[in-house]
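Bench log, entry 3. Co-assembly request; chain sequences pasted below exactly as received.
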Amino acid sequence: MTSLLAFDWFLVLEKLILIAVVIFGSLGVALYTTFAERKVAGLLQDRPGPNRAGPFGLLQPFADGLKLVFKEEIIPNTSNKTLFILGPGLAMTAALMTSAVVPWGKAVEIGDRVVSLQIADVNIGMLYIFAILSLGVYGIMIGGWASNNKFSLMAALRGASQAISYELAMGISLIALVMVTGSLSLREMVEHQMAEGNLWNVAYQPLGFLIFLICAFAECNRAPFDLPEAENELNFGYHQEYSSMKLGFFLFAEYVNMFMSSVIMSTMYFGGYDVPFLDESTLSTNVAALVGIVALMTKVVAFIFFFMWVRWTIPRFRYDQLMQLGWKKLVPLALANMIITGAVILWLQGK
Amino acid sequence: MQALTQRAKQVNRKPMTFMESLYLPSIFKGMGITFSHIFKKNPTIHYPEQQRPFSPVFRGLHVLNRDEEGRERCTACGLCAVACPAEAITMEAAERLPGEEHLYREEKYAAKYEINMLRCIFCGLCEEACPKDAIYLSETFAPASFARKTFIYGKPDLLIPDKNKDPEGYAKAKGLAN
Ligand code: SF4
Ligand code: SF4
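Structure output for the full assembly:
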C-alpha cells in the first residue's frame, strides 16, 4: 500500500494529459494541413482554393471529414477482413507514435512541479523514431495486400521497396548527425544545438540534411515520391478498395506523417524549440516554454509549406528513377557524408 | 532522320550528367517558378457574387417580348420552331377572344410555348426567324438544377415581365440587373 502511495501519481496524470494534448494537437494540425494544402495549391496555381465553407473556407476540413464519415463503408468480400481493417489503423497509429519522443518545449512550471514537455525522454529517441517510421509502411503493405486487388498489391510492393531503399540513406545520414551531436536522445540533441557557440545542426550537416529531407519525402509517400498511389498507372494505389473513414484514415495518416516529419526535421536539424540569438535562460520557465513551442511550430509550418510547395511543383518520379536516385545517388552520397564527417571530427580531436 | 513535320523536334537522349541526375537544379528552378505564382493576380471570378460582364450580343436565356402597351407580341406562327435546329421549341396556338385585346397584340396567340433548355444550343436562329420581334435571347443563362423537367421553360418563365408594371423584373429578365 505504501509503495502504491509513494508512486508518483502526478507523473502519470501529467503524462496522460500531455499525450492527449499531443495526439489531439497533431490530429488538429493534420486536419488543417489538408486545408492548407489545398489553399497552397491554389496560391501556386493562381486560383483561390476552398473558400466556401465558413469564413475563408475555414470549415472545409470538417465538411470533408463529415462527407467521409457519411460515405458507404465497403469491404470487398474477397478481402481479408481483419487485415483490411488493420491497415488504416496501423498507418494512423504509426504516424502518431513518433510524437512520443519529441521535445515540444523545455518544461512548464505548474505550482512547484516542473513538467517536462516531452512524453518520454528515452535515450535512444532517434532509433525509436527510425523504427516507427519504418513501421508506417506496414499500414500500406497490409492495406494493399488485404484488398486482394492487383493494383493495390503492386502499390503496396512499391511502397515497401521505396521505404526500404530510402530508409538506408536516411539512416546513414542520421549516423553522421549522431557523430556531430554525440547523442541519440532528441532532448540532448536540442540542448546541444542551443548551447553557447553551437550552430544548428544544419550548418554542420548540410548534405546530411538534404539527404534526410529527400528521404523524408519518400518515407511520407509525398509527391514526387507518391508512387504507391500513382493514379495514372495504379488507379488509386493501395487505398483503391477503401471507402468512408478507412480511406480517410489513410489520407489523414499521410498528413500526420508530414507533420511529424516536419517536427523531427526541425528538432534534429533546425534547433527544435530554440530561438536563434535569444538566451532562453534569462526568461522564466513558462515564458521560455511558450516561446519555444511557438518557435518549433513556426519551423514546422515552414517545413509543411515546403512539403506542399514541392508537391505542387514537380511531377512524380518514374519507378526506375526512384530506385536509381535512392541506391545510386543518395546512398553513396550519404556514405561519403558519413566518412567525411567522421574524418573531420577525428581531425579536430587530434589537433 | 527526316523530320515528318516542321514542328517535329528531335528528343535529346543524351545520358544525364551527374548534376542533372540529382534533379536538384531543375527542381529549384521549378520551385522558383511556382513560388513566383503566389504573387500573380488571381483570375478567378467568384461566380454567384461576381459575374462576368457579357457582351450585348450574348445569346442567353430566351425572353418572350411584349409591345409598348404590355401585350404579348407572339402570334404562334411557328417560324421559330421551324428555324430551330435543335427542335427545342413547341407551342400551341389559340384564338384571341373579344375582350382580350389588352393581352395579345395579334388575333392568334401562343396558349402554350415551351423551350427545352437542355436541347437548345443558344444559336439565336429563333430570334432571327421571328417576324414579330417576339423572341429574344437575353444576357442571362439558365441556372443549374437537379431535375431534367425543370429545364423545360414554359410561358410563365419565358414571358418578360411588363416594363411598366414591373420594371425591376423586366431588367432582370433581360440580364441588365447587374
Ligand atoms: S436559340 Fe437556337 S436552338 Fe435555341 S430555341 Fe432558338 S433556334 Fe432553337
Ligand atoms: S416567337 Fe415569333 S416566330 Fe415564334 S411563334 Fe411567336 S411570333 Fe412566331
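Chain A has a mean pLDDT of 82. Chain A touches chain B at residues 43-48, 51, 309-310, 312-314, 324-325, 329 (CB under 8 Å).
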